[in-house]
Amino acid sequence: MAVTQKTLRSNIQAQALANGLPRRMYSTVYLATLLLAAVAIYVLVSLLLGKAQVLIDDVRYGRPRTVQLDAFVGHDEASGQPTHLIAVNLNRQAMIIELPGGNPANARTISGPYLFGADEDLTPLALELRDMDNDGNVDLLLDVRNEQVVYLNKDGVFRLPTAAEQARLAKGNAR
To answer: Tens digit of pLDDT for each residue in 56-93?
Structure first.
């Protein structure tokens, strides 16, 4: 008894194989699957990196986002203690707490900008001291997402510049 093998195909299957339709369809399905997998991996990696950045900011700045700075700025520092500055992003409201000469009895609060947008309550703030108006006193810069708010050091307090002072600052920074 001889064993033979015969593949039984319908006319439609034989015609499809002859035209190469399954191979083309296989390539298309394969490419579509690769594209969907690449998009899924991109979304997953982006999500993980975003969560990792929030975790790093939690460790670095805490919740609410807080940053501190000690410096001699000329505000009630006769005791030899530097002024302590604390910037807090409290429910999307940036605020700066100043303890002149490190004395909490003389604490001052400076309201900063309100932050709009999703998850802005997690935006870290940065403080910097620099003489912006060249008057010999260091001025306070509040940095929020690479946008700076300048508080001039005038008459023993930090305050926002007037319109004329803003024009001079813009002219001086344009050089």
So the answer is: 999 999 999 999 999 999 998 888 899 999 999 999 99
Q: Can you name the residues that pair with 139 across neighbouring β-strands? A: 130
Is residue 173 within 8 A of residue 131, CB to CB? The reply is no
**Pairing label, strands 93-99, 157-159:** unpaired
Dihedral Cα 106, 112, 115, 121, nearest 10 deg:
-20
Q: Residues 25, 31, 32, 37: is their CA dihedral positive or negative?
A: positive
CA 170 centroid distance within chain: 25
Please report which helix (H) or strand (E) contains residue 31, including its range. helix 21-61
Q: What are phi and psi of 27, to 5 degrees?
A: -65, -40
Q: What is the pTM for the complete model shown?
A: 0.74
